[in-house]
Fold this sequence. Notes:
single chain; two-stranded parallel sheet
Amino acid sequence: xxxxxxxxxxxxxxxxxxxxxxxxxxxxxxxxxxxxxxxxxxxxxxxxxxxxxxxxxxxxxxxxxxxxxxxxxxxxxxxxxxxxxxxxxxxxxxxxxxxxxxxxxxxxxxxxxxxxxxxxxxxxxxxxxxxxxxxxxxxxxxxxxxxxxxxxxxxxxxxxxxxxxxxxxxxxxxxxxxxxxxx
Length: 183
């Protein structure tokens, strides 16, 4: 994000994230500490959006919520943003990046949606040992809470073709209520 700002000083940023992430202000503080003016940074909380994405792979629920969150973010920027980088600050949001793009492009002349999930995959892959193996891989999914069937159905639409072994592990998850102890 900072490299983009160095190239385009008129660039405004919208950080879409959970209410907790927004309250912490990590992204906004970092941008501002590197010289991005306050009026070019908007941190927009999106309560309920992760659940909407988990429960509805069609994107309809996410789209309905974004009809509220996008105008609210633009209002925080004072209506003066013409060149925007929108950062998806929750791993769930990447599943509906297209809905973010549609909602933002409907209201802005120039916007780029940044999905950090893609960079995370590149980082993970670059840190793996590149030695050839047998090709066998076992995936187990362990959760401290029961995964609702609607979430499994929705995730099937998101990852089924791309990650069938992961989907199979999710469908046959192991319930460990004491996982990580008490939170």
